[in-house]
Amino acid sequence: MNALGELVELRAMRPGDADALWRWNHDPDVMRFMVAGYPQTPETVAKFLTERPRNAYGDVLFGVESRKDGKLIGLIGLQGAEPETGIAELNIYLGEKDYWGQGYATDAMRTACRYGFDRMRLHRIWLTVVAGNDPARHVYQKIGFVEEGRLRQASRRDGEWTDAYLMGLLAGELR
Ligand SMILES: CC(C)(COP(=O)(O)OP(=O)(O)OC[C@H]1O[C@@H](n2cnc3c(N)ncnc32)[C@H](O)[C@@H]1OP(=O)(O)O)[C@@H](O)C(=O)NCCC(=O)NCCS
């Protein structure tokens, strides 16, 4: 079932989302604080979306849609959960830059975390964020994520090693 926030709806990714996903993955502004990976063709991205296994407990990937106009603006995922631990890693990126700074990531994060805690009965959600990605860090802290550690030289950007923060949110801590 889709997850509804105030500003966004989280829904399954579709093969038709490939062009947007390809465009975001090749936008240096979007990928600035992410692992860019190797260049892909739009066809490879479409193949990934078509052949990807269905969403399941250990691998949930949502497209983030703006409720205002129904446009797909990014992705958010909860990965690696196991029933024995109830711990998942969260990843988010919004590829449509025109939608930045309007509360979409905050709402998408809250909606995905609520989904994780309420529907998946997770106990802990964690993520890493590269030092310097201040807007992302701000959003995570705003909704209750706590900084739990600093990973030294965990990311390489523009030829420089950069630290990253490990952040975690426990059930009951979501704001
Ligand atoms: C980072 C990202 C998720 C933020 O999305 P967004 O929709 O613009 O976020 P929101 O509008 O919900 O919130 C942004 C917050 O950051 C704040 N902010 C903006 N620039 C900031 C800065 N330089 N330092 C600190 N806070 C900043 C805003 O004021 C806002 O907080 P507020 O609502 O309390 O005022 C989005 O830009 C993105 O996906 N970027 C590319 C990929 C990426 O970096 N993903 C995260 C990897 S960990």
Structure description:
The protein is an alpha+beta fold and about 180 residues long. It has a single domain, classed as Gcn5-related N-acetyltransferase (GNAT) (Aminopeptidase, 3-Layer(aba) Sandwich). The protein has helices spanning about 20-25, 30, 40-50, 105-120, 135-140, and strands at about 5, 10, 60-65, 70-80, 85-95, 125-130, 145-155, 160-170. The protein has an eight-stranded mixed β-sheet, sandwiched between helices. The longest helix is centred in the middle third of the chain and has 16 residues, at about 105-120. It is globular. The two termini are about 25 Å apart. The mean pLDDT is about 95. Bound molecules: coenzyme A. The site of coenzyme A (COA) has 22 residues, from strand 5, helix 4 and helix 5. This is RimJ/RimL family protein N-acetyltransferase.
